[in-house]
Amino acid sequence: MFSGDESLNDVGRRQVNEIAKLDVPSMARRLAAPERRVGQTAQLRGLRVITEPRLADLDCGQLQGKTLEDVRPEDLRVWLTDPAQVPHGGESISALIGRVQGWLASLAEHTLATVAVTHPAVIRAAIVSALGAPAKSFWRLDISPASRTTMHFRRGSWTLRW
Length: 162
What we know:
Elements: H1 10-18, E1 29-32, H2 36-44, E2 50-51, H3 73-81, H4 93-107, E3 114-117, H5 120-131, E4 150-154, E5 157-161
Parallel strand pairs: 1-2, 1-3
Antiparallel strand pairs: 4-5
Helix pairs in contact: 4-5
């Protein structure tokens, strides 16, 4: 289902409870996307966070609350193959990547570590940006819910740690 601003469900709570303890530096900035389920995730992990609007999930427009089967096949094909298109009337993949690039650029100005609780789509956008990959590679990344991705800013560029 294409998410909106719903609460964390039972599956989500179980996923969050199964992830390893976060070792967050005491001086780290703690940020979270504005959606309710993200705030609940942070709370379950014992994090007091500040809402960062640029960490919001991909706006799926008219698809919110619908399933994949509800999407016209042609609209789905266009959306999955052309990152600039928005057949659902929401946010394009290119726009999401641009929004996340702006957020990453703002982090480069800070020396403190940052922990961000956000959505798989935002993590995909951050990885695409960090690697300088084309926007069409966005859908080629599989980011699991309640997973952890680590990135570092060094010597003017982002690196990804697995």
